Amino acid sequence: MEFKHIYGVELCKEKINFAKQYGYTIYDCDICSGPFDIGDNYDCIYSSHTIEHVLNPEYTIRNIMTKLKNDGKFILILPYTDYTAGNTKNEHSFKVHCGVIPLGLHINDKGTTLINKIQQMGYKVTNYKFQSYREPEIQLTIIK
Asked: For residue 86, what pLDDT is reported?
């Protein structure tokens, strides 16, 4: 897949300024609040290891999906299986990865819980796979 126009979304001013040095258009935006203004609708939105950090991942996913063109794809990569974040005794992981439990990422069921949650939101998972690029993770392709 080749992309001609790439845009980013970031909250940290330091990271925004760093990316702008290389000519990228970056929207200063908190993905936890919305609806958010990140320009026009897009053919593809890519999110890697972000949604597990939000308090209400369903709300965030719904807002992201509004920014897709009708035939657009949302590629979502999440840690899987994330047992440590599902353990309330591991306070740091539990707080930092607060979206793990609502998404079911702590349940080792081959992604069934996660996929069911996405489908219950009214979206379709057209593809999913497991990989270990940085850590064990699941990659989903979601459409409206």
From this structure: 66
| Calpha distance 31→144 (Å, rounded) | 19
Q: What is the mean pLDDT of residues 32-43?
A: 83
CATH code of residue 95: 3.40.50.150
Give the E-state strand segments of the chain in sequence order: 7-10, 25-28, 42-48, 68-79, 124-131, 137-143
Judge contact between 100 and 106, C-beta under 8 A.
Answer: yes
73 and 135 in a single domain? The answer is yes
Alpha carbons 137 and 140: distance in angstroms, whole number: 10
Model confidence at 133, pLDDT cuts 50, 70, 90, reads confident
Tens of pLDDT, residue by residue over 109-127, are 999 999 999 999 999 999 9
- DSSP reduced 3-state for 79: strand
Question: What pLDDT is attached to residue 1?
Answer: 60
The number of domains in the chain is 2
Single-letter amino acid code for the residue at 110: K
64 occurs within a structural domain = yes
